[in-house]
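step=predict obj=DUF2316 family protein n=103
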Amino acid sequence: MSLNPQQVKNTINELHENFIRTGLTKAQVATDLHISLTKLERLFTLTQSSLDDPWILRNYLIKKVKENGQEPVAFTALVGDWHQYWFLNSRAIDQRELTAGDN
């Protein structure tokens, strides 16, 4: 699945707004996800090479926003059940298994 430029822009904004609503720092998010801050930045800017990793971040942020008593910002491109997308590794997403390395 490829996102068009507007979808990329919207998704980056949606990730950022949900991050703000978590009340966490980027260091806390990186620690929770067992990734570097470099990789986290790549996820927030959608420059990460894995298609699964942004979904993992999305799901994590939604959970943390709700735990913070906030309502998550709806995603406009990362929507639906990831189990139904043939190109995604739903097991990795379910297990929150981000790809190794910073790319």
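step=describe
The chain has a mean pLDDT of 95.
step=end
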